[in-house]
From TrEMBL:
GO terms for molecular function: calcium ion binding. One of its GO terms (biological process) is cell adhesion. Its main location: secreted. The gene is Egfl6_0. The lineage of its organism: Eukaryota, Metazoa, Chordata, Craniata, Vertebrata. Belongs to the nephronectin family. This is EGFL6 protein.
Length: 197
């Protein structure tokens, strides 16, 4: 089976037919499915959509059970946690709904971990890290665009000279470089390439 546009988060099952991995949707499986909007709702109280998945958390005074339901807890009510809590050996601990969040100094509210600056993020060499609340994603470096080539997605250099997105002078030549471009004044002219006289 060949899928001309590719199946980003899925597999090609027939001519231009994609079967998406759980948590993804769309013709080419490139869209994150918002499980929190599904009926019936996957979480009893609150739901947080994540890339390809979701996390459940409870209102204050309740604690998250393994099946995603929320059970009333008198000790949790006293803890005043932002995202619900759990009781471990009689001790109350506040929870954060994502691995990209950590408990703040007050041990009750959750603050974002910037995976891009801490080095926890893993992005391939031609992608840059973009931090989000509770997570991160990898985006093509400036001067590159995401394209589906020979069975996989990759960041490919944009040829600014061909796409006409350069700002070279009318009397200059455009030279494509990896991730960028250069301008060189034509013979008989001199200047920066952006200005030629």
């Amino acid at each position: 089976a060949v899928c001309g546009h590719g199946c980003k988060y899925g597999e090609c099952t027939g001519p231009n037919k994609c079967k998406c991995f759980p948590g993804f949707a769309g013709k080419t499986c490139n869209q994150d499915l918002n499980e929190c909007g599904l009926k019936p709702r996957p979480c009893e109280h609150r739901c947080m959509n994540t890339h390809g998945s979701y996390k459940c958390y409870c209102l204050n005074g309740y604690m998250l059970m393994p099946d995603g339901t929320c059970a009333s807890s008198t000790t949790c009510a006293m803890a005043n946690c932002q995202y619900g809590c759990e009781e471990v050996k009689g001790e109350v601990q506040c929870l954060c709904p994502s691995g990209g969040l950590q408990l703040g100094p007050n041990r009750r509210t959750c603050i974002d971990i910037d995976e891009c600056s801490t080095g926890k993020a893993v992005c391939s060499h031609n992608r840059r890290c973009i931090n989000t609340f509770g997570s991160y994603y990898c985006k093509c470096q400036l001067g590159y665009e995401l394209k589906y080539i020979s069975g996989r997605y990759d960041c490919v250099d944009i040829n600014e000279c061909v796409t006409d997105t350069h700002r070279c002078n009318l009397h200059a030549e455009c030279l494509n470089t990896k991730g960028s471009f250069k301008c060189k004044c034509k013979q008989g002219y001199q200047g920066s390439g952006f200005d030629c006289a």
